[in-house]
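Q: Here's a chain of 375 amino acids. Please give me its 3D structure as tokens.
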Amino acid sequence: MTHVLTASSTKTCKQCPYKYYLRYVVGLRRDREATPLRFGGNWHRGLELLGQGCVAADMQGQLATEYRDRPEYISPEAWEVEYYTVASALAAYAWYYQNDGLEVVATESEFCLPITNPESGRPSTKWRRAGKIDRRIRMGEHEMIEEHKTTSEDIAPGSDYWRNLRIDSQISMYLSAAREIGHPTSGILYDVFRKPQIRPKKLSLKDAVGFLTTNLYCGQTFDVTIQRDEAKKIVGVQVNACKATLEPLKAGPTLRETPAMFGARVLQSITELPDQYFARQEIARTEADMEAAAFELWAIMQQINSMSRTGHWYKNETQCVRMGRCEFCDICFDGVDVTNDVPDGFIRVENPHVELSTLKETNHATNCNAHDSAA
């Protein structure tokens, strides 16, 4: 069995080896998909469609299929709001970068390559590094990797988000892989979308009257149906066949944005101030950077081998609640034995790198029976 390290699993091991063990050796996953992961996955799906030549309207239609089946633990409104947020933001992305001059060479290119000992130059016989390159692009005479990310952090020039990329291990791994495959890659273009911080809101009475009179909201026209009682008072509003929630005000009733109306406001907010939401920077690596990354990857592989051999994976208690609460906190805090039983709220997956189809086809997986001390 071949063992695999990806950029995600490498970073997880650096954060906390026991978290790596639970996620990539035992194969534990939350039985409820985290919203940021789902949002990021659908953002990548939309960009993949745009990169393949899909126009924005068709991309949004295909993206809607990803939101066809709603999980029971998510409300219908929250599910639709998420779709309209992603779809509207992708439409804004297509508009903003429509004349960027980038030629898309390939999208979603997977790799699975040996991990090489940087001292001896010999490849590991048991370990490989794998990943999925979002895009290979051509800028004039130069070919680059384009990496897409979504974040809630500040993406202004000089912010810590960009400074942190100076030491980001994924960039080095992907550059190394692209060159090893034979792509003449000169660097990475980091393409970042800062997720909107706005939420659906209640309209002011003035805005509600204007909308119900003109059917216009944030530059878009809606199909509006108004129901009135015998006294001509508004008792119901349908917006694009979706029931709007009416809320009382002292001067009269108003309504809350429907998910589609919220999507219109998302699109307007982004197109009015696109630089607050979209940013791109070229990220370079020196030969010294690439060498250091190769030594780091080899060292992490050896660390995993050592802990796998002894069966002892240490916990990094400084990471439990540092950036939000770790999904495995209760397992660690309560001393739950995961050897045979799956804890409540979790499932066990056979392939922890499910996003990589190459690993499904070649059976390059990582499980608790596969780990050994091989280099």
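Q: Can you summarize the key feature?
A: The CA atoms of residues 89 and 277 lie 9 Å apart.
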